[in-house]
Amino acid sequence: QVQLVETGGGLVQAGGSLTLSCVVSSSRVFRINAIAWYRQAPGKQRETVATITTQGATSVADSVKDRFAIPTDNPKGTVSLQMNNLKPDDTAIYFCNANVWTMTAGSNDYWGQGTQVTVSS
């Protein structure tokens, strides 16, 4: 009933930039409470990258705070992750997770399928 789709990943050289987008959709009337960006590299634990609430409060992980940003002026139902000065260690699959309320199911967490970010040296 709720779908999340991440786009914007790809191959970029170190020092380059990418902007990821997460679009939330549903066949039901819904309200997004919060969206978080995660990333996971093979053999490594999943890491929280950034979060944003529907009120616009944001948080960015210390490891990427100086390089990543999460805009607050996104169209309704979307969220972006701006990534600058990318490093090879940023290589991972990036996922968005949204806590979404619907009339029929209440509030639940939903995951996208991820978008691959690969940073070459």
Give descriptors for this structure:
mainly beta; 7-stranded mixed β-sheet; 11 strands
What's the short story on this structure?
The chain is 0% helix and 59% strand. With 121 residues, the protein is mainly β.
What is the fold's blueprint, element by element?
Elements (H helix, E strand, L loop, with lengths): L1 E6 L2 E4 L4 E9 L3 E11 L6 E7 L4 E3 L7 E2 L8 E6 L8 E11 L3 E6 L3 E6 L1
Parallel strand pairs: 2-11
Antiparallel strand pairs: 1-3, 3-8, 4-5, 4-9, 5-6, 7-8, 9-10, 9-11
Binned strand content: over 45%
What do the pLDDT scores average to?
Answer: 95
End-to-end span in angstroms? 41 Å
Which geometry do the CA atoms define?
elongated
Give an overview of the whole structure:
- The chain has strands spanning 2-7, 10-13, 18-26, 30-40, 47-53, 58-60, 68-69, 78-83, 92-102, 106-111, 115-120.
- The protein has 121 residues and is an all-beta fold.
- The strands form 2 sheets. Strands 2, 4, 5, 6, 9, 10 and 11 form a 7-stranded mixed beta sheet that branches. A 4-stranded antiparallel beta sheet has the order 1-3-8-7, with no helix packed on it.
- The model has no long low-confidence stretch (mean pLDDT 95).
